[in-house]
């Protein structure tokens, strides 16, 4: 295995993301020797922790994540961790940080390589990027930066943040995280489409009637009401995860599977993205909030949520392209909190053709992303002892053991960062288009808000608002998953 030398600086080292995801993932990469003797991590955050205390936190994070670990591995791993209490606005702190990075670089022979990781509240991203540039924190080797979501709140703020980051980093060194791109079945969309002649040959508007993406969650907004009020379901889930999934489904086959070819194919597709008109928005989009007769489950009763909030916790809508294999095919999406169950899936609904048996089911291809990783295809056959059509599903799935051993999405993505593979990260050209689309909807909703008392409501732990059943283009369409 390769052993990549680098000093990693994590902004938000005491945070939840670092604790739950980054430290366990780094530990696994360490056990695989991808990072080993020549790496060190500097955690920064406001709290005045010592190196020792920080290492205990990292060790705890690993024990919480893994059932069984070799204690020696954990101990050795933790010796690579250093902590610096850091105020993101203080020039001096960046100077100290730079010196510490240099000192560790010498000690670990890290060859001037730096990995910066923005894992704190997004409002600080721009400030940190600006200081990285002004206090010249970049090293003499490779310099990469990982940026968590959300990347801006609309196109204007995303552009501003991008300017601040590109002052020190080239586009190919910026790794904008979308954790859905680390999910096994999202990474399976391209192989499914391009390695199966059976599927490749029907992946077009002659055969596909529509595509339906559902990202449903059982949980409400929990303790994140403050953030969620500034976001809503459209920005939180559609701007990133749903759009990346759609792009993988609708793009042309890339010339090869290199990062640049994949991003090129995405870009070409997105150039033909149809920005919805007001009429489209009225007909094919729905937003709503969870609320029940029992108010304890109501969004507007959540902590840090305004009593008269018009923030949507559910959104459904339609995406279309003017080019590519799915030209003019409706791609419907819906996502919401407090649904019946956690379920992330893609249903590809094929057109019917006439057949001599009367009724036949449509051949649906379903890609289930969570909770199970599997693909199934609906087939028609004969009923055994009576006339008529019987329906069966062909299933492609991972075994329970494979599922249990599946590397966490973050581990895969961090590995990609260390190996310099940006295939599964969001390129600026994609992000820009996503925001253009989202901004159009947000602008329309802002206008509409002046005229409405409240958003449509939906009962918790069911299938969302009934209004979402009427977003389709034709009366013969309906949600396959219900
Ligand atoms: C995050 C959103 O990006 O994705 C959360 O901010 C959401 O609101 C989460 O709960 C869902 O991710 P997953 O992997 O649980 O489907």
Automatic annotation (TrEMBL):
PROSITE patterns: G6P_DEHYDROGENASE (PS00069)
Gene Ontology cellular component terms for the protein in this record: cytosol
EC number: 1.1.1.49
Reaction(s) this enzyme catalyzes, per UniProt: D-glucose 6-phosphate + NADP(+) = 6-phospho-D-glucono-1,5-lactone + NADPH + H(+)
Residue span, Glucose-6-phosphate dehydrogenase C-terminal domain: 190-479
UniProt cross-references to Pfam families, sorted A to Z: G6PD_C, G6PD_N
NCBIfam families: zwf
Descriptive protein name: Glucose-6-phosphate 1-dehydrogenase
Species whose genome carries this gene: Lactobacillus pasteurii DSM 23907 = CRBIP 24.76
Taxonomic lineage from the root: Bacteria, Bacillati, Bacillota, Bacilli, Lactobacillales
């Amino acid at each position: 295995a390769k052993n990549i030398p680098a000093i990693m600086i994590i902004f938000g080292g005491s945070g939840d993301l670092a604790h739950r995801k980054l430290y366990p993932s780094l530990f696994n990469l360490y056990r695989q020797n991808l990072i080993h003797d020549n790496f060190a991590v500097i955690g920064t955050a406001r709290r005045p922790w010592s190196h020792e205390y920080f290492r205990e936190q990292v060790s705890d994070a690993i024990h919480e994540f893994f059932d069984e670990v070799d204690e020696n591995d954990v101990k050795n791993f933790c010796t690579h961790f250093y902590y610096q209490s850091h105020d993101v606005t203080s020039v001096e702190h960046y100077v100290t940080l730079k010196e510490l990075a240099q000192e560790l670089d010498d000690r670990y022979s890290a060859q001037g390589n730096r990995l910066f990781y923005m894992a704190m509240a997004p409002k600080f991203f721009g400030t940190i990027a600006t200081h990285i540039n002004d206090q010249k924190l970049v090293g003499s080797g490779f310099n990469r930066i990982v940026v968590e979501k959300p990347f801006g709140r609309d196109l204007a703020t995303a552009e501003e943040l991008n300017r601040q980051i590109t002052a020190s980093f080239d586009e190919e060194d910026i790794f904008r995280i979308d954790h859905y791109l680390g999910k096994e079945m999202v990474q399976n969309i391209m192989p499914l489409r391009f390695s199966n002649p059976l599927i490749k040959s029907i992946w077009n508007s002659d055969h596909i009637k529509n595509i339906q993406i559902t990202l449903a969650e059982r949980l409400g907004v929990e303790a994140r009401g403050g953030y969620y009020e500034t976001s809503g379901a459209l920005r939180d889930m559609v701007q990133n995860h749903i759009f990346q999934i759609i792009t993988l489904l609708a793009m042309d086959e890339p010339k090869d599977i290199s990062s640049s070819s994949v991003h090129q194919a995405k870009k070409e597709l997105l150039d033909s993205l149809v920005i919805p008109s007001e009429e489209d928005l009225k007909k094919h989009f729905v937003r709503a909030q969870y609320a029940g007769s029992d108010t304890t489950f109501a969004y507007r009763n959540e902590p840090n949520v305004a009593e008269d909030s018009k923030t949507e916790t559910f959104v459904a809508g339609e995406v279309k392209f003017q080019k590519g294999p799915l030209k003019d095919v409706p791609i419907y999406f819906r996502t919401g909190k407090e649904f019946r169950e956690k379920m992330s899936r893609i249903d590809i609904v094929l057109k019917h053709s006439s057949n001599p048996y009367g009724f036949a089911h449509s051949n649906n291809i379903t890609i289930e992303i969570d909770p199970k990783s599997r693909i199934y295809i609906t087939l028609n056959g004969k009923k055994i002892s009576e006339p008529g059509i019987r329906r069966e599903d062909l299933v492609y799935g991972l075994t329970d053991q494979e599922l249990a051993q599946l590397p966490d999405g973050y581990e895969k993505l961090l590995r990609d960062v260390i190996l310099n593979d940006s295939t599964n990260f969001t390129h600026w050209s994609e992000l820009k288009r996503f925001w253009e689309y989202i901004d159009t909807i947000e602008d329309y909703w802002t206008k509409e808000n002046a005229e409405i008392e409240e958003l449509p409501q939906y009962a918790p732990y069911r299938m969302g608002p009934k209004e979402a059943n009427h977003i389709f283009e034709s009366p013969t369409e309906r949600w396959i998953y219900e």
